[in-house]
Amino acid sequence: MAVVVPFRGLRFNPDKVSRLEEVISPPYDVINAQTAAELLARNPYNMLHLDLRCPAAGEIAAEDRHHEAARRYAAWRDKGALVGDEQPALYLYHVEYVHPSGRRLTRRGLVGLVRLAEFSEGIVKPHEKTFDTVIGDRLRLLVSCQAQFSQVFSLYSDPDNRINHLLEAARPERAIARVRDHHGNDHSLWAVTDPATLQEVSRFLADRPLYIADGHHRYTTALALRRALGEAGRPPAAEDPANYIMMYLCAMEDPGLSVLPTHRLLRHPQRLSLSETLARLTPAFAIREVGGGSREVLLGETMALMEEAHLAREKDPTLVLGLYHPGEDRAFFLRLREEIRNNSPILVQQAPELRQLDVTVLSDLVFHELLGLDHDRCAREQLVAYFSDPDEALDVAVKESIADGAQSPLLFLLNPTLVEQVRDVADAGEIMPHKSTYFYPKIVTGLVLYSLTPHVFHTNDA
């Protein structure tokens, strides 16, 4: 049973921090060094000073960064820059944004605490692999600061939109926070404190599984902390703060929920001509060349064909991919020969839920079986680059094609993974390939924080 409860969030004090847009940040794991430097210079209270990971966090040695974050966090609280809300609340959180298609959308969700559950319990379900090095970094930060700075993004089923109706009816007229992020997306937060509404929301969510959309490492880190406390002879009680994690919960049926594709630039370690590339793909795909024009036009027309197929998937579920060969400046629309999905010696090793994914077909069938590059080699030699922005991917592909070297860059374009596919894979207990989902927009760090104090654990290091 999922346990979702209100909490007294920590938020920036507007009397001390008047420009919220200067202190919020994207999630730590999507920030490159240049963006990190810009955020750190923007305001001494920018959240990246706490929720740090990359080297751009300054000249502080890696082993000291977590202690410095804890010192800053304590100072911010002592100075009144971060203050706790007086009443427990579930926080209604709206994001208004422009989809890459040009549509204006609003995603509606809530922020609350969720009692931790091991994945084996089937209450909270993952779909991504996690990495021990990342968990170790996040765990040291959590132990040092005794706070959670960002939410795990999770999904639940609510086809009748019951939760949003309840929260909208009980929300105050005035938002407690409004801010525009660096992408131009507008984030709004309301504190819903009506006891009857809070109880009804918790009751509704109690019998629904939660599916992690984004934040697998944060959730796994919280589990690691709980296990460590138990191994140290101090297992947290049911209501102990260390037994909860802050989540952003969104209905998977919400019309504002968007999943974007993550395109792949394959750097094939051999020089592959266009004719050889197509010859390798032809046994598995019906291939259609996209008409002429500039490379930007080729990209746009290829993606338009893919979107058309994506929208018609209920009538024709045939998987499609896009291919741009920068060396020849030519683009192609690939349609999977359906018999291949169940006959490929590589694909048939995967669960049925995984064989339905575009990313699985690309990584297992195209990269491994047809082009001879298995997962381990791609990872070891860093042969695959990932791009959510197709224009950026195109630019990099073209630049690499004219650079000296033995590699052959090939840009593969994908349609987005469906939310239903995320659910099906998680229900089957399977794990998707790396970078299978990109839920957009990202939730920002800094709107509301969760403190684990009074201190529920102590270490000699923190």
Description of the molecule:
- The strands form 5 sheets. Strands 1, 4, 5, 6, 8, 9, 10, 11 and 12 form a 9-stranded mixed beta sheet that branches. Strands 15-17-16-19-14-18 form a 6-stranded antiparallel beta sheet, with helices on both faces.
- The chain folds into 2 domains: 4-257 and 440-451, no CATH class; 262-415, no CATH class.
- It contains 14 helices and 21 strands.
- The chain has 462 residues and is an alpha+beta fold.
- Helices cover 33% and strands 23% of the residues.
- It is globular.
Radius of gyration, rounded?
23 Å
Overall pLDDT: 92
Low-confidence stretches: 54-59, 455-462
Number of helices in the DSSP assignment: 14
* SS-derived structural category: alpha+beta
Q: Got a strand count? A: 21
- What is the general shape? globular
- Helix % is 25-40%
Tell me the count of domains. Answer: 2
Distance between the termini: 34 Å
* SS strand fraction: 15-25%
Main beta-sheet annotation? 9 strands, mixed
